[in-house]
Amino acid sequence: MKVLVIGNGGREHALAWKLSESKSVDKIYMARGNGGTEDFCENLDLDPKDIDGLLKFAHEEKIDLTVVGPEDPLCMGIVDAFNEKGLKVFGPNKACARFEKSKEFTKKFLEKYSIKTGALVGEFEFNKFVELSKENRLYKELPKYPSMKRDFAFILDRDVSSEEIEEVAKKYGKKILEDFNVFDIYTGKGIEEGKKSIAFSLIFRANDRTLTDSEVEKISDKIIQEIKDNFKAKLRGEWALWKRRK
User: Fold this and answer.
1) Residues 6 or more apart from 57 whose CB is under 8 A from it?
2) What count of other Cβ atoms lies within 10 Å of the Cβ of residue 34?
């Protein structure tokens, strides 16, 4: 079976990685994928929001199943478009995707049909509020250019610290690496003794221009390669394939 996974973040990376473990899957394409997914997928130079381009590719390559991760193409109606062409696709249609896109719409829907939803309850001291309002206000200027986020997950020795990985990221990210954030460390079932899985995100942003995908991918690839070389690490998807062959 040939599968097309749409997206390039950590969520889509994880979906593709698990799909790669299935004996029913022969080939996985990713649009666009990232530096980590190229180890077990074929990354495509297709924008996840280019519905016509994705439809054309799925039809020409006879894709058996398309899995959509990002919110934007779902809200643009990519699932509806694939269904109209008779192509199998996994994801909510345009109408259902509104619940993810608009929290206001979701809230009104829940209230209309008396479905329990969260409520914010609190209290404050009004006098204190007035006092604080008289103090000098400090404002932080909003960034002029957008950021780009990349998520990665590695299997490596348990004694490798997140600080060591961050040093590698800063070495190549330099001035455009805005943030390094570890969001998952796992040592449980499925991970070899003495190893751990560590997942982290990198936020890139330039102060003088909008970064390009190719610029960020080039830096990400260097970071990935040095982490592999320095710590004998493997990307999660790469490690899963290696373990299966073993």
Assistant:
1) 4, 29, 31, 44, 46, 63
2) 26
Beta strands at 27-32 and 177-186: parallel, antiparallel or unpaired: unpaired
Q: What is the DSSP string of 104-145?
A: HHHHHHHHHTT-----------HHHHHHHHTSPP--PPPPSS
Of 180, 156, 136, the residue nearest 238 (C-alpha)? 156
DSSP-assigned beta bridge partners for residue 198? 154, 185
Confidence (pLDDT) at 241: 46
Give the pairing type, strands 42-44 and 27-32. Answer: parallel
Residue 237 is given by DSSP the state H
Beta bridge pairs of residue 195: 157
Q: Strand pairing partners for 203?
A: 149, 179
pLDDT tens digits, 220-239? 999 999 999 999 998 876 54
pTM above 0.85, yes or no: no
The H or E element spanning position 16 is helix 10-20
Q: Residue type at 62?
A: K
Structure-block tokens of residue 131: 């006092």
| 181 beta partners | 201
